[in-house]
């Protein structure tokens, strides 16, 4: 049951991400060139808990594109084919209000789109979802460490 739920969730995320990537106006692109879209969701706890307004930095082959996550936590960027292509590794870093997260993925899908604007387009796609994790401040981190040591010593006495 758990595997089915995870698979279903993954397929829904893929469908939503491809939908947001396809919202780009492809008729503005040169169809003789290759393009790669990288997208995903910036979330906290579960992928359906998207974070709006996160700053996203996507790096592929040393090339970096930036974006901001939308109201559902989705983001997408487009690279030209000589910057990022099928099979390349991608690193995504996101940050919002002191919470940060990073995740690695790869460009592992290709879609062919035919448009009414004179040509078709092959689009390589990578989907990388990133969980945000709140960072501890110095004071909270110190209190957490002291508490953990205190509890350890208390339990050890018994």
SSE order in H/E notation?
A: HEEEEEEEEEEEH
Shape call: elongated
Give the mean pLDDT. Answer: 77
**Approximate helicity band:** 25-40%
CATH topology (level 3) name: Immunoglobulin-like
Radius of gyration, rounded? Answer: 20 Å
CATH architecture: Sandwich
CATH superfamily: Immunoglobulins
Strand content: 35-45%
Largest sheet: 6 strands, mixed
* Terminal CA distance: 41 Å
Question: Please, how many helices?
Answer: 2
CATH class: Mainly Beta
Number of discrete domains = 1
What can you tell me about this protein's structure?
This protein is α+β, with helices and mostly antiparallel strands and 158 residues long. The chain is built from two helices and eleven strands. Strands 1, 2, 5, 8, 9 and 10 form a six-stranded mixed β-sheet that branches. A hairpin with a 2-residue loop joins β3 (55-60) and β4. It is elongated and about 75 Å long.
Concise synopsis of the structure shown:
25% of the residues lie in helices and 43% in strands. The chain has helices at 2-21, 138-157, and strands at residues 35-44, 46-50, 55-60, 63-68, 74-80, 89-96, 99-106, 109-114, 120-127, 130-131, 133-134.
Summarize the topology.
Layout: H1 2-21, E1 35-44, E2 46-50, E3 55-60, E4 63-68, E5 74-80, E6 89-96, E7 99-106, E8 109-114, E9 120-127, E10 130-131, E11 133-134, H2 138-157
Parallel strand pairs: 1-9, 1-10
Antiparallel strand pairs: 1-2, 1-5, 3-4, 3-6, 6-7, 7-11, 8-9
